[in-house]
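Worked example

This section walks through a single chain of length 198. The input is the sequence exactly as stored; nothing has been trimmed or padded.
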Amino acid sequence: MLIKQIAQKRVVVLRLSSVLIITLIVFDNNFSAYSLEIDPNIAILFSYIGYTLVVLGGFGRIWASLYLEGFKTKKLIKEGPYSMVRNPLYFFSLMIFLGMFFAIKSVPISVTILLVFVLFHVPTILNEEKVLLDTHDESYRAYHESTPRLLPNIFKYKKTKSTDRIEVKIKGINNVLWEVIGYLFLFTLIDFFYFIGL
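Given that input, the structure is written out below as tokens.
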């Protein structure tokens, strides 16, 4: 019951958590971005690694959304990114957050964001899996048992047939595209402020 409640209120709580974290970053000197003291060359390496993770995570979210959009728990999707991992959207979101950690350059902020991610996404994943098990029965159970939950197994990748079609809700894909653009902009902004402050 608690898992379902957390899952249902996840978006609101995540937004409130984001506001709280940003407030702490702005007003609390002990909880600030760029607190990791590193060599400028390492900082540049962090930027490359972080940006790569954000870009790959963003494209991954778009890729997974194209398969899922319009179906969510109604139809069992087992192709494309879903052939390697049951929750590719959460995996690619985690990849984006890891990329952001490289831009933020702060262990306390990174750990806090990771904790928020785990506390609110894990219950959502568990709740969604329960709904899928109830909705799809044995077809999902076999998929559930053979496919990793969060870390992809690239050797399980199953390509869709070139004649297969997917049904997409444009509004949902537009939301994901804007979300990815927002993450890329945020990363660039965070990184820009770090380097002009050097």
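What to look for: The first helix runs from residue 2 to 8.
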